[in-house]
Amino acid sequence: MNFNFIPRIEFKELFVKSNKNLNGINYFRIGVFLLPSAFSVSSIFLIIALIINTKSEKINYFKDYFNYPLFLSGILILITAISNYLSNSQIADMRFENRIQFLLDIANWIPFFYVFSSFGNYLSNTKLRKEFSILLISGSLPIFVSGFYQFFLFKFNMPFSLSGPYKLFNGLITWYQYVIQPTGELGVTSIFNNPNYLGCWLLILLPFSMFLSIQKYEKRYQKIFALSFLISIVILIALSKSRAALGLLALSIPATFELNLLITTLFLIFYLSTNLLIIFFANTDYQSSIKQLIPEQIINDFSQSKLLGNPSRELRSDIWSSAINFIKLKPLFGIGAGLFPLVYISRNELTEEVNNWVGHTHNLFLELAFNYGLILASVISFFILFLIIKSFFVIRFNKLKACNSINNFNRAWWAATILLVSSQLVDVQYYDGRISIVFWILLSGLRAIIKEG
User: Fold this and answer.
1) What is the pLDDT of residues 178-200, one digit of tens each?
2) Where are the domains of the chain?
């Protein structure tokens, strides 16, 4: 059985009306293709796909046991959000925009539970999931172009007026592409407003791009095209200077390919040794010698002044310990969405520490526990962990394992999910709408893999 349809597929073929069991899939495909570069427009198509799928399929969500943890989570979120809103409304100093955030944050979760449940129809087999990955990578082309253009402006000291943000339709579509300051402290952001968001997005694409790169193609240019995407992803991750993304690069290969323990261990040792060597050379007299091989900005990131400037904050330890202490105050139902920056900066003022503003807990589990309590955080975390572990065993011991193309792609899907979830343990890029949509689509794909197995 040959599933290497990728080099022959045409967008015209992709958008042919599907059978009656997949009504709305073309809206889904358009939405996925536009998701990286035009989130607002993409959302319209994805909402239409959701509505059509719900009306035409008449899905009974209560019959699918995968939805039960999300039903419970949705109820907990609603109860906790309303409770926090009402209890904090009695505080005179609490501003309205802070109180309303308790309710607005519901939109970060409950609609995406519906995405998980409904979009499973569009991911129900390997062919459909491959189409999704192709559209996601193809739609990300503006991210690559924007990222390299941003670095080009910085490298050649071009006028700031050529940089972003660029806005279309009164800001409906915004490509941030901020000016990279001469110090080069922050890396490339591309169309995102933060290098960590770019790094997270590229990590999602990386396993799919690896899969495409190892496929056999009839024409050489197709192989070159696939490899170009892969190389561009790795280069842009380096240029983003996102520590989370750079660190997870080491995990991408063993997660995507079924390597034995020895090879995986050797690879990780090589990766860690390389980082230690860069740190060593960046802090010795040999620094000037390696600037010919490694960009100066990366060397500066590994310098002693950068690493030791504020280690507790850079390594998240201060943020996480503060979050844990805050959670202890209201462990069951949380303190409330959007309050972490306020309580964190208030704590710093009381302890007379450096007053650094921090927008969130930099860990998705702690974020959920702070906002809604440990009960909800545990339910969602165990649900995600179940999907990851169960799908791993399905892929690992699948009876169709002889069909390498299917198994390799499912492995790539699993790896993309692992990288995305892992990145949420050291940061919370989830609040970017593009990333949260893909987050739940990838989890829905794992559910489809489990059902297939």
Assistant:
1) 888 776 667 899 999 999 999 99
2) 6-139+194-258+316-452, 259-315
